Each structure stands twice: as structure tokens, then as C-alpha cells.
Amino acid sequence: MTEPGTPGLVIVDKPAGITSHDVVSRVRRLAGTRKVGHAGTLDPMATGVLVLGVERATRLLGHLMLTEKSYDATIRLGLGTTTDDAEGEPLDGATAAHLGGAVVRSTLATFVGDIEQVPTSVSAIKVDGKRAYQRVRDGEQVELKARPVTVHDLVVHDVRRAGEQGQYVDADVSLRCSSGTYVRAIARDAGAVLGVGGHLTALRRTAVGPYGLDVARTLEHLTEEFAVLSLDAAARAAFPALELDDTGAAAVRVGRRLDVSLNGLTALFAPGGQFLALYEPRGDHAAAVAVFC
């Protein structure tokens, strides 16, 4: 059992039907502190990996949010919705009964790579200081701008008929993508390309950066045994590591630059293994991004 208030990460396997904020509230009670945040929300319908930071580790979350994510999802072709998932109101669609597996697979393959994606209108993106989803709830028409995202890979596991009359086609997929990619938008856009509409009926996040379902704990498990991944272990898992000598560690503790060469954002450690800071390359030296000691 981890002591309350211990800084580090809590990797939760979020159940369906509750918000990410609900999970944060539960972990605040279990950790005995209000200083808990998350590295990217999951919709109430979605399940899977939700990374939370406790105490000092909340400062690590902004850097973790930029890492790639992996998902399992079911895309339903033949019907669009107002939210691009099963929680939205249905929109006009067209039967997908004529779609064969080959055309579904080839269409989804076009979303692999660097693409321009319009986020779903009920996203948490701010429009003139107000969340897009709140504007939609208030009855406003929201049009978001396309932005670049990357789908590193997308594997179609199964394509099958669905619906009482077989008017839908469901595709089970797994994908790995950059931060900021909306899987719901891929379902919507695939349906648009095929002229039948599309939305998600299931979404499970299987990994955020290096943290997968293998290290995630259910809320029930955390209630019985509250487990925190230490700040030292969390940083070592998520970033390249640089081991320092005593002189270098002393300099890093006060945020001084170092005359070392780094390949991107790097976690720096004291001789005893304590995580000290994140540094990044700046010209011919390395400079502090965030100091944690």
C-alpha cells in the first residue's frame, strides 16, 4: 500500500459510464490530496488507460500528454451521430449493406500517415475561450479547423454485418496515433468517404506512451491497494535517461545549463537514481524544462 500523498503516477483502467473527472475525484480521496491531474481525458463511453499524476508528478503530465497513444475501437458504418460516437443523436445515414470487407479495409487504410483532421465538434478544444462541447450543448453551431495529426498504424481485425436488417457494417480496429488524434473523427470521416455515415460504438485506450493496460489498475483494485508508480520509475519509463555525477546533479538541482549533448527531451538522474529534471537541447548545451527535486 502506497502512503497517501506519495508523488508519482497512478495508471487507471477507466470503466465505461464515468468521466475522467470522476476518476480524478476518486483518486484524490484515495491519495489524500487534491493535487491530482490527468494526462488527457477519456470520454464517458471509452475505457482503458488513464494516466494520473499525484503531487509533484502533476508537473510531468503536460509532457506525457504529447506522447503517442494506442486504441482498440469498433467503427460502425451506415449511421453518423452528433457526437461521432454511440452517445450522440443519430443523423441521416445510408445502408452499408453493400459494403464488402475489401472496400472497408482499403478506405480505413487511407487514414494512415500524416493527415489533416477536423476534430469532433464536441471535443474539449477551446473556441474563443469556451470548450467546443459546451458551445454545442448551448445550441451553437461549431466548426473547428482541421489540424495535422499522425496515425502511425491502423489494423483492421474484423469486418462484419450488424443491425437487425444487416444495414450496418462494423469494423474492429487497433491504431497507434499521435496525441490530439480523434478516433471518433476517423469513424466519421470513413463513413463520409463511403457515403454512408459512421461513428464509434466502442473505444478502449490500450496505452499512453509507455504505460499500457499491463500496468493499469481498476478503481476497485486501487480501493483495495492504492498503488503509485514512483516519480523516478515514471520518468525513466517515459523518457530517455541521463545518469549524472555529483557535480552535474548539483548543477541540475538549481536549474543550471549543462554542457552535454541530448537527443530531445531527457530525464536526468542523480547518482543514487533520483529523478531530478527534464532537460532539452538548446544549441550546444542542455537547458532545464522542468526541475522536480
Automatic annotation (TrEMBL):
Domain tRNA pseudouridylate synthase B C-terminal span(s) in chain numbering: 184-227
SUPFAM superfamilies in the record: Pseudouridine synthase (SSF55120), PUA domain-like (SSF88697)
GO BP terms, alphabetized: mRNA pseudouridine synthesis; tRNA pseudouridine synthesis
EC top class named in words: isomerase
Domain tRNA pseudouridine synthase II TruB subfamily 2 C-terminal residue range list: 239-292
Record EC number: 5.4.99.25
CDD domains per the UniProt record, alphabetical: PseudoU_synth_EcTruB
Active-site residue numbers: D43 (nucleophile)
Pfam families associated with the record: TruB_C (PF09142), TruB_C_2 (PF16198), TruB_N (PF01509)
GO molecular function: RNA binding; tRNA pseudouridine(55) synthase activity
Task of the protein: Responsible for synthesis of pseudouridine from uracil-55 in the psi GC loop of transfer RNAs.
Family in the record: Belongs to the pseudouridine synthase TruB family. Type 1 subfamily.
Listed NCBIfam families: TruB (TIGR00431)
Stated name of the protein: tRNA pseudouridine synthase B
Provenance organism: Nocardioides acrostichi
Lineage: Bacteria, Bacillati, Actinomycetota, Actinomycetes, Propionibacteriales
